[in-house]
UniProtKB/TrEMBL annotation:
This is Protein unc-13 homolog. The gene is LOC113732549. It holds the Pfam family TPR_PATROL1. Transmembrane segments: none annotated. Residues 674-815 form the MHD1 domain. The lineage of its organism: Eukaryota, Viridiplantae, Streptophyta, Embryophyta, Tracheophyta. InterPro entries: Munc13_1, Munc13_dom-2, PATROL1_C, unc-13_homologue. It comes from Coffea arabica. Residues 951-1061 form the MHD2 domain. It comes from the Eukaryota.
Amino acid sequence: MEEEGVVGVLQRYRRDRRVLLSFILSGSLIKKVVMPPGAVSLDDVDLDQVSVDHVLNCAKKGEMLDLSEAIREYHDSTLFPNMNKAGPADEFFLVTDPISSGSPPRREPPLLHSIMPSPILPSLATPETLDSAEDENLLNLSKSQSLNSTQVQELTINDIDDFDDDEDLEEVDSQRYSRRVLNDAADLELGLPSFATGIMDDDLRETAYEILLASAGASGGLIVPVKEKKKDKKSRLMRKLGRSKGEHVATQNQQTSGLVSLLETMRVQMEITEAMDVRTRIGLLNAMVGKVGKRMDALLIPLELLCCISRTEFSDKKSYIKWQKRQLNVMEEGLINHPAVGFGESGRKASELRVLLAKIEESEMLTPSAGELQRTECLRCLRDVATPLAERPARGDLTGEICHWADGYHLNVRLYEKLLLSVFDILDEGKLAEEVEEILELLKSTWRILGITETIHYTCYAWVLFRQFVLTGERGLLQHSIEQLKKIPLKEQRGSQERLHLKSLLGRVESENGVQEMTFLQSFLLPIQKWTDKHLGDYHHHYTEATAMMESVLVAAMVVRRLLCEEPEMAMYTGPVADTEQIESYVLSSIKSAYVRIIKDVETMSDVTHEHPLASLAEQTKKLLKKDATMYMPILSQRHPNATAVSASLIHKLFGIKLKPFLDSVEHLTEDTVAVFPAANSLEQYVIEVIMSNCNEETGEMYCKKLNLYKIETISGTLVLRWVNSQLGRILSWVERAIEQERWVPVSPQQRHGSSIVEVYRIVEETVDQFFALKVPMRSSELSSLLRGIDNAFQVYARSVVNQLAKKEDVIPPVPILTRYSKEGGIKALVKKELRDPRQPDVKRSTDYSALTTPTVCVQLNTLYYAISQLNKLEDSIWERWTRKNYHDKSIRRPTEENLRSSTQKETFDGSRKDINAAINRVCEFTGTKIIFWDLRESFIDNLYKPTVSQCRFETLIDQLDLVLNQLCDIIVEQLRDRVVTGLLQASLDGLLRVILDGGPSRIFTLADAKLLEEDVEVLKEFFISGGDGLPRGGVENQVAGVRQVIKLLGYETRELIEDLKSASELELQGGRSKLGADTKTLLRILCHRGDSEASQFLKKHYRIPKSAT
């Protein structure tokens, strides 16, 4: 394939060189052009043998150009290495390897005294001084004069036309540079045997034109044009390229029509010189002399041309030898090398034919007379041998042929290919010529000679168009090629005779798997299939933007595939059978190739970006899938509805292979896991989204079930739980440390809570921030674990605050021993065991209780309130961030998970709220109890109503209570004021009941005291109501109602109380209450503090309560 590409470049170089030389010689750059002997115009000169350096030197110096000298210099220069004269000294390009040429000479080079004239390159020697007369004579002397030449033909400036105007020059210049850079078409090598004789593309092109002329001659359209002056024969393009600024051109448009005009167009398109055209036409016309009734297309064209064209019709011998060699090679290839039918008895003649061809070639090495004699004799024998070979039966009547001088179809289709190449614009290879329809119609005349049928024509034409599309990248040519492919009839659409004919067209081609036999369709269509499969098998690389081009290539691939599947050898083909399988193979191949390129790019960029390779790979793979789904899948899905799912599934699998070792090795949350997990999970979610959005629900679920899910959420969730547990342990340790260091001093006058709760919230918020900073996928269970841990931390904090308080029973002093009223003193107490309370105050506890001052307890309450008030903000912040984190999560969640999430959100910190509220209630209760029973113990519990109620009323305690209440309200937060004051009210009422019912032996109440006590209760109530600025009246009334019920009992007579106590004892056994609505304990304590003998006698008789010591 590489050799074919090199040959193509060389042929293009040769054509461009000829065009440039023709331009220089036809223009005004050369003062005078002297033709070589035998040449009339430039068309008779082989420009390949003209030295460009010699022409340029003449143009620079303004000298006359002798083409004979230029040809001689070209041949002489081939004996020496190439030189570069661009530098200060000549540079030689050595043919030998400089390494193997030995070391450089050690001796110095000889001195250069003078430059001697060179007999080979006289233009490089220093010219001797000449006088003007000699110089003029030398200039007038033609260097082309020889013994055999009698007249010198010259081409002067006057013989060259000018341009008509400058606009035409601009137009031609724009067309001249419109030749595009062609692509490499090495992959489109035809599956045909190579030519043993080494026939080149130029040889095939010239032979194809000769066949075209013969076909036209059979239709009577072969006319030899009359030779005119050069300026009348030149094409319009060449006339414009040879414009002289000082002259005008008289444009002469020769109006020709029909076949003559079309043949002239074909000659230009096929780059055939006028000299060869005229020579061939004359040769074919001479061949028909004496052949009455025989068509020109029935002749053995190479043989006839060899016989009818002589050496004298060529400008030089080398051109003639080259032309003759081509004709001999064509005959050998056509008649011997690839026969469609065995020689049989003609086998001996085939051997004789080879001998004769060799002798004709050898005749050029003999003397002119001997050589001409041998050539003439060999041509006569050649006609006798070649004609039977060309006329032996071959393909029957299908093509209507009589003379099948090239019965092996390989040469014929290659010649027909060269004819088909003439349909392209010579100035723009990506466009069809305007006369394309007329050209194709003309080419039909060659079908008889070349054995072409409609199937062969459509196949060859489709291949030519497709190859030109590959070279130029022009999508219009691809569309034309598809149209021709669709015209190729399927097997059932062909006639039986055509099927047999196509079946006989076989060729043996050497391939990687050895010698392979290929049918005609396989030879032309397999290269197209190979090319399309290669490009569609990596469509991400070949069609980065031009998706319309990809769509057309896909159509061509499917049409070619349909045609090839009918070939008998393709029946054993083990590749994809259905179109969907072929599309799937394209997708799989292209995705794998693109993925390999992505891996290489990621490996290259990972050192620069310092990003984990797997994270970068996941991002780039997601981009690949997105591009594939949006750009390419709309095209491929037309032939494979689930192509997108196939692509997404493969991408998921390929990345999973790279990801698995990483997942197996991860044990803790690290920077790598935080970088890789989100990217991998995002890719997987996008894969699922693409599959579900491009397939119906049932198909999408089927493809999703086949996915080997990465389970990022599960693995990540385990790691997150480990991290959460370690952080929760850290939080608990900070809570304990904060409580231990707390001194219950307000943070500031405005922030009257302790610093410990601020520290706890700080560590909690830091943990929450770190949790949401983990950009790894996680489920609601990980969040629930974190929330439970935070909830537990606040519960621990609340319990720690409560644990610093004393029990209520420890603050309240022991209840005195019950005694009965007695006027005597010193009576020994003999009481029932169950009525005594032996507890005594603890000195150490007293010290601890004294440390819990009212301001300290108020700060604790404020701290607990701050804790519960900030929970709402913390909770709202957590759920808002969680919702935002999972906003783009497209994963399909099960209903149970959603229910778990909603229930967790509703009960986030309920445990903390419950415990903190309970702690606040406990502290409020403790505050009131401590103030009444500990701080005001002496004045309230010990001395109130002593010695009588009238002598020590409750009003004496109002100032102390007011002082305490003001102290509470100054420190406590507004939201907790009523709760603390209510606790103080309750404690005050409990203290009052304690004084009334368990006041000890020193307190005696009479019937008259009931009214005074009622007044004291009213004073207490109004104090806490405080004219509407305190507690709500209704709440205070409810609190006071129980005390009033006890005081009301004090107003009853002793006998009534005794009777009620007796009945209450019996009713309590039955589950009822007494008539007065009091229980036995209350009635008993009221009687104990009643100052009359009746009560004392009753208590002594029934309860054995001792007398009080007064």
